[in-house]
Amino acid sequence: MKRSLFPFLTLCFCLLFFYLPLAVMMVGSFNNSRFGGPWRGVTLRYYTSLFRDREIWVCLENTLIIAVASTIVCMALGAAAAFALHYFRSKLQFIHQALVYAPLVIPEILMGMSLLLFFVALEADLGMWTIFAGHVTFSMSYVALTVLGRLQDFDFTLIDAARDLGAGTWTAVWKILIPLIAPGILAGGLLAFTLSLDDFVVTFFVSGTDSKTLPIYIYSSIKHGSPTKLNALSTILLIVTFLGAFISRLLAGRAGRTGRIVNKAG
Amino acid sequence: MSARPERAQGSARNERRRLNEIFLTLPSLVWLGVFFFVPTLIVFAIAFRPADPYGGIGDGWTLETIRRMVSPNYPAIIWRTFLLSVAATFICLTLAVPVGYCLARVGRRWRQWILLLVVIPFWTNFLVRVFAWKSLLATNGSFRLALVWLGVLGEDQPILFTPVAILLVLVYTYLPFAILPVYASAEKFDFSLLEAARDLGASSGKAFFRVFLPGISRGLATAAIMVLVPSLGSYVIPDLVGGASSEMLGNKIAQYVYTERNLPRASALSAILTVVVVALLILFLWWSLRRDRSGSGVKKGGLFT
Residues A199, A138: contact at Cβ < 8 Å? Predict the structure, then answer.
């Protein structure tokens, strides 16, 4: 009996391990004590000072512009890549597949470093455009794999049925395939969006000095800023993430999917 | 219809198929070629270029940067990076196996919720998580105070800015990456095999090590790669919770880019890291191909010997 309880206790331990640090931080963001010491009552002043900080709003705007732009490009490129990988078996697809999988397994710092050298070699100005290019590069493969997962579950006899009933290839694709694959493309897009919002390492390498995103702001606040204000900002980000995760779970459907995507990425 | 127009039609169809393939493949292929493959080649090239005094890249070619890599400074950092990454991988796998087992055996409705709880940390902002730990580990942080209270840590013994802090945050960050593949394998595992092993006289420990673990070996290997590779390349974690004496490869690369402005040296270190990562991935692919060819995960006869 004792033995069978062990896995369950480990699970409880892991969940505590995951959430306790976040909970402590969220509680700390309301603590009316300047340096996060003992509890001194509830305050909202870190939140109000957060809303008055103009720099945060500029960073947020940059972050969202890049996230939206890179997500749209990633959805188009990633979905096309997934279709190509699924339908064709040629030497070209072998190379294509290697290129699509590689960014998933290469540590971020290597991607940041190589992109920086690439832009330096091109003598490009570092800024919003280079951040955008970096974000598309690291999230495209995630969209491709998510869509590929959907395509593998897709029942292709539906296409044959549509064509038997007189639909042309493109009609069948637009009316049958795309609508059924759309949740996959959306789920991939959501993943790309989150990755873009969160990315620090690649952005740090290719952002130059003028264009700051929210993670860059957070990083410099961790290094030099006030921890209490950062507690408040983190709490807001965490709550947004919890909501986003919940919505995406509704979109993605079955529970096993995440495990399968991760499995393929390896 | 005669044979001829049919063949012409067939070749026209092939032609169109070929065009479709190119139309669908080219955008992602070109993008990744330009922004991923070419930059990686540039890293290797610049490792052989001299640095100029203004933080740029000088003319000509040199082996000087590579030769300097044998100085005692670098092997120590590479060794530390390797040790911390392997330790993080080991701890993550040790925790992921019981959790994956539990998830595979629990009822469907519970499983969905627990899986969501495991995945959420992966969706939260990475810097926020590191920051949460930094506060917990600080001198007056709750976690450090708890450890002092438990007697694990001395009254004025620091934990922040030590290798232990790095290890802890590495495990915290990459544990979900280990749990998911292990769970995915455990879900497909046929648990009646464990009962069969017990019926045939194996102790539960023996059944676990000789039947369950080999049965989920694919998940274990994927989990190991998913933790080991990003740990080897980690930069933010050692930068924020590690100290000057616990630098890792990633820190050194960033340091050469930002403070010492020596791009060739940063490139040489990146090239070393790339070679190590690619070697690990090839090893993993070779192993999984060989495993797929030999059939099931449980070795024949392995059950009874």
Answer: yes
B44-72 confidence digits (pLDDT tens): 998 888 887 777 777 778 777 777 777 76
Residue of B20, B39, B130 lying closest to A117 (CB–CB): B39
ipTM above 0.90, yes or no: no
C-alpha of B36 from chain center: 19
Distance CA A88, CA A98 (A): 14
Identify each DSSP E strand in B184-254 by its residue range.
none
**Helix, strand, coil percentages in chain A from 3-state DSSP, rounded to 5:** 80, 0, 20
- CB contact (8 A) between residue B277 and residue A83: no
Domains, chain B, with CATH or none: 72-293 (1.10.3720.10)
Neighbours of B179 (CB within 10 A): 30
The residue written with tokens 């999230």 in the block is A139
Yes or no, beta carbons of B123 and A244 under 8 Å apart = yes
The dihedral over CA atoms of A42, A46, A51, A55, expressed in degrees to the nearest 10, equals: -170
Domain ranges of chain A: 54-225
CB-CB under 8 Å, A110 with B270: yes
DSSP A131-179: HHHHHHHHHHHHHHHHHHHHHHH--THHHHHHHHTT--HHHHIIIIIHH
Q: Closest partner residue to B28 among A24, A100, A106, by Cβ?
A: A100
CA-based nearest distance A72→chain B, Å: 13
Distance CA A171, CA A162 (A): 9
- Minimal C-alpha gap between B104 and chain A (Å): 11
- Mutation target vs A (from B125, B129, B226, B259; most A CBs, 10 A cutoff): B125
Q: pLDDT tens digits for B114-159?
A: 888 898 888 888 999 999 999 899 888 888 888 898 988 888 888 8
pTM for the model = 0.87
For B134, the closest chain A residue by CA position comes to A222
* Nearest alpha-carbon partner for B222 in B191, B184, B261: B184
CB contact under 8 A, A18 and B230: no
Task: Write down the CATH superfamily of domain A54-225.
Answer: MetI-like (1.10.3720.10)
Query: Nearest chain B Cα to A5, which residue?
Result: B102
| CA B284 to each of CA A94, B215, B228: distance values in angstroms, whole numbers, following the listed order | 18, 17, 12
Chain B partners within 8 Å of A227 (Cβ): 131, 135
Say yes or no for a CB contact (<8 Å) between B99 and A230. Answer: no
Looking at residue A3, what is its pLDDT? 52
The HSE-up count of residue A206 (CA atoms within 13 Å, CB side) is 34
